[in-house]
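BACKBONE GEOMETRY TOKENS
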Amino acid sequence: MSIQVSPEQLQKLSDCLLNVKGDTPLHERFRALFTLKAVGGDEVVEIVAKGFADPSALLKHELAYVLGQIKNLKAVPHLEAVLIDADGFQGEMVRHEAAEALGALSSVQSLDLLKKYKTDESRSVRETCEIAVDKIEYDHFTEEGRARQLDPNFPTTDPAPASLPTEDESTSSLRSTLLDTSIPLFKRYRAMFALRNIVARSSGVKGKEDEARAGVQALADGFKDGSALFRHEIAYIFGQLSSPYSIPSLLYVMRDSAEDDMVRHEAAEALGGIASEGDEGVEGELYENEEDKQKGVLGILREWSTLESAPPVVRESCQVALDMYEYENSNQFQYADGLKTDDSAPVEQTPAQRLTGMDRGVDLTSIMA
């Protein structure tokens, strides 16, 4: 579903995203970005692409993600330029997301470039290109891929489709595939998203709490993998699921100084998207120590959002996550409510859809005034 905006509103969104004033808070720029995602269209592609000149790796990572999700092939040249990164300005995290976005857009014309960068010096870029190639070939050259429909519960375009359910499918069998480093990443990703679906089906269902928790634990075991790309996708999925059972592993990953910044940033945003202290209908203790329990997720995000010793992308992610957390627990949660008029009813988010963070809702009050 798209949002209709006036030229004046579109200009305000553009100015906010691109920080024309020079002092726009990062979380407001994120809100503008995800509102532009909901607007869509050729003009939005060009506005978002201008943001790749920004110094913030976190923002540029999200720009690439959005361009992959809006399903407009005019974004392809911009994303290819970011992947190539001729002037060395973008960096590994942004280039990886550009490659993933090309996979999401699934243009056959991108295959040659993606295959070329399967030998990139960056492991995360190499692996992303490998998965993107496999996804595009799956989409276009397999009967299953051509027939596949978007999952209405997860309306994002994921790096790999969930593997199709089988008679002997179980959390245990999918976990085995997930952790088997001898098989292609694309197949392991398919098991990852299948586990996500199992957790989603069992979460909040009476009598299935153990199944949900086991699924989350199976996914969390993926944090032990040697691939930062793989680990970051686990954190992303935890943001989609919003399961309180994932909070301990996400807190650990976010604060682990030995972890890759790309993984830590995704863990922070997932915590903001979950927007919970983990005390809603959960049996057992989620926090590893009394100090964490006293601070809670919100307190820890606040601490890390200003922690000078934290890597910039982690600190910025906590700032955005903090805004997401507070926003989703406020009475502002109406989709694009800054665009409603006196004669229009607010557009509400479909409860069944599981989106991450800013995808769930957009509040334009602060940027459309």
Q: What stands out?
A: Confidence is low (pLDDT under 50) at residues 333-353, 360-367. Residues 123-141 form the longest helix (19 residues). Residues 40-148 form a domain with the Leucine-rich Repeat Variant fold (CATH 1.25.10.10).
